[in-house]
Write a structure and sequence with these properties.
274 residues; mainly beta; Jelly Rolls; five-stranded antiparallel β-sheet; four-stranded antiparallel β-sheet; 17 strands; 0% helix
């Protein structure tokens, strides 16, 4: 962030207790926090059970989702153990370090596998810029959260065939200098068999001549359940990966079982004051 970046604390909080076993974003979800005008940096998410008695929580899952207004995609699952509460035994709690940049208007949501009561608390920071004294060389960032699904069955390594777009560098408007990608989160919301996810860079054209294989992520067999997390992996880059404005990250999956992989890209577009 530039020296003129100003942060404003945003604390997102929601109570959830309605059982929801779905991994595809359907069913009852609680709204935790919404991205501000430039985006919101979500530093941590705290999960705290609030039920009373010897079985205040049963073994299950808390699930976090990203909602872009049209699509809802699974971001993370958190295992919840069976925990009793008393005057001398505390309820379950955990804290997740996310450091995730949520795009403006996008929403972090949460659900619980079982009908147990939880508080979901997000430690967030909205960011803006002090325009009165912005230096010409300063950098302005705007969160660009890519939310998509990889379902395209494609065996090609040369970029030919149908691909799924995960994110495009440069959000609405002009003057963007590129996209800084921190990570690409991959989360299954169906059972997964062995196979391969392939990520490509695609320039402003389409087809094999404009699409270049970037990396591959092996799929390993997972049968998700109420107490066992679905497939998850994350592509991380040394520092960040700077993608040229207008270019895309696209993907395919090689498997014969018709898996669906939810993708969430943690990234920010950047430009300089005119």
């Amino acid at each position: 962030m530039a020296a003129e970046t100003q942060y404003t604390a945003k604390t997102g909080m929601v109570k959830i207790s309605t059982a929801n076993s779905n991994l595809d974003g359907s069913g009852n979800l609680g709204t935790v926090i919404t991205g501000g005008s430039n985006g919101t940096l979500i530093k941590h998410v705290i999960i705290k059970a609030t039920g009373t008695g010897n079985a205040s929580t049963s073994q299950g899952m808390i699930r976090l989702f990203i909602d872009d207004g049209t699509n809802i995609r699974l971001l993370k699952e958190v295992d919840i153990p069976s925990t009793g509460q008393s005057s001398t035994d505390e309820t379950f709690e955990t804290i997740l370090s996310l450091d995730f940049k949520l795009e403006s208007g996008f929403v972090l949501k949460a659900s619980t596998q079982n009908a147990n009561a939880f508080n979901i608390i997000a430690e967030g920071l909205d960011f803006a810029y002090y325009n009165a004294s912005v230096r010409p060389e300063s950098t302005n960032y705007t969160a660009n959260t890519g939310v998509s699904t990889i379902t395209t069955q494609n065996t090609a390594l040369d970029g030919s065939g149908t691909v799924s777009t995960l994110i495009t560098a440069g959000v609405s408007g002009s003057g963007w200098n590129g996209l800084a990608i921190n990570s690409i989160n991959l989360k299954g919301y169906t059972d997964v068999t062995r196979g391969m996810i392939r990520l490509f860079i695609q320039n402003t054209g389409t087809g094999a001549s404009n699409t270049f294989l970037l990396t591959e992520v092996p799929l390993y067999p997972v049968d998700a359940s109420a107490t066992f997390q679905s497939f998850q992996d994350q592509v991380e880059f040394v520092s960040t990966f700077q993608l040229q404005a207008g270019y895309k990250i696209v993907a395919t999956i090689e498997s014969s079982q018709g898996e669906s992989i939810a993708t969430v890209v943690d990234a920010m577009d950047w430009k300089y004051p005119s």
